[in-house]
Amino acid sequence: MPDLTKTSTTEETAAAQDEVVAGSAVSAPASTGKPRSLWGDAWRELRRNPLFVISAFLILILLLVAAFPGLFTGTNPDTGDQVNHFLGKPELTHFFQADWFGYDRTGRSIYARVVHGAGNSILVGVGVTVLVTFFGGLCGMLAGYFGGFWDSLISRLIDVFFGIPFLLGAMVVLNAFTDRTVWVVMGALAFLGWTQIARVMRGAVITTKHADYVMAARALGAGTKRILFRHILPNAVAPVIVVATISLGTYIVAESTLSYLGLGLGDGAISWGGDISDATQDIRNNPHTLFFPAGMLSITVLAFIMMGDAVREALDPKLR
């Protein structure tokens, strides 16, 4: 006669092992005994990634420069120095003095203008990223979840905006404004740049809404609002964060390009793109006037691209 007690114990043990295997993807090591979420696991991977550490350090410095330019220079960026009024060469006599980067053709400190120009360029990039992430993410979530008429309407609207060249469309929009402030430039870029985020969010929501936990929440009577913001959004936002982080550098470049062409920030506003445009007149004999604003622009864009790559690797298990 078979030992029923032994058989029952064996079946219980096998079931327990199956539960452990099934939960191994979200469980923490045995030493902690606590489950680790996707975001906790991603943060753990980010801290171990040198690319993230370097980019985060650069972005922190750039944000400090943009928010508190007075900590880095006490020179007025709009005041010309008559003693060095024509392209004074860079000098390293004082690390944080006005003459460290030299002067432009009107005697203005290039170092002071680079420091104060960071505020407008980074503000435009961050502001546009926030606007397109909010509006594009909302449109993509509605299209992906409800489908049908809303999906067709929003998808066709996305196709229309995708057919407009980004910079050309921004030039046309900004040309209609006589006073191009930071907020006007930000609104013009956001008006044309929300489509990529919307398309990414739509695809992520379509994939997520058929998951078992969403079906279970719907079967238990959860409302649409709760399903969208409690179950779908937290699990579909990861690719949007990656795209938004990388796109931030793109918007900074777009603002600088428009300022270089004379269609960006208006007169009186300091921008790296505007300084690059002014420096092209003296690039052959005095390349330092172009090197420093262009170098800061390149470093800023590179830092955000590196950050986006690190976030993408942390949130995508296939890339680890």
TrEMBL record:
<keyword id="KW-0812">Transmembrane</keyword>
<feature type="transmembrane region" description="Helical">
    <location>
        <begin position="232"/>
        <end position="254"/>
    </location>
</feature>
<feature type="transmembrane region" description="Helical">
    <location>
        <begin position="122"/>
        <end position="145"/>
    </location>
</feature>
<protein>
    <submittedName>
        <fullName>ABC transporter permease</fullName>
    </submittedName>
</protein>
<dbReference type="InterPro" id="IPR035906">
    <property type="entry name" value="MetI-like_sf"/>
</dbReference>
<feature type="transmembrane region" description="Helical">
    <location>
        <begin position="51"/>
        <end position="72"/>
    </location>
</feature>
<dbReference type="InterPro" id="IPR000515">
    <property type="entry name" value="MetI-like"/>
</dbReference>
<feature type="compositionally biased region" description="Low complexity">
    <location>
        <begin position="10"/>
        <end position="28"/>
    </location>
</feature>
<dbReference type="Pfam" id="PF12911">
    <property type="entry name" value="OppC_N"/>
</dbReference>
<feature type="transmembrane region" description="Helical">
    <location>
        <begin position="290"/>
        <end position="311"/>
    </location>
</feature>
<feature type="domain" description="ABC transmembrane type-1">
    <location>
        <begin position="118"/>
        <end position="308"/>
    </location>
</feature>
<keyword id="KW-1003">Cell membrane</keyword>
<dbReference type="Pfam" id="PF00528">
    <property type="entry name" value="BPD_transp_1"/>
</dbReference>
<dbReference type="InterPro" id="IPR050366">
    <property type="entry name" value="BP-dependent_transpt_permease"/>
</dbReference>
<keyword id="KW-0813">Transport</keyword>
<feature type="transmembrane region" description="Helical">
    <location>
        <begin position="183"/>
        <end position="201"/>
    </location>
</feature>
<comment type="similarity">
    <text>Belongs to the binding-protein-dependent transport system permease family.</text>
</comment>
<keyword id="KW-1133">Transmembrane helix</keyword>
<keyword id="KW-0472">Membrane</keyword>
<dbReference type="InterPro" id="IPR025966">
    <property type="entry name" value="OppC_N"/>
</dbReference>
<feature type="region of interest" description="Disordered">
    <location>
        <begin position="1"/>
        <end position="28"/>
    </location>
</feature>
<feature type="transmembrane region" description="Helical">
    <location>
        <begin position="157"/>
        <end position="177"/>
    </location>
</feature>
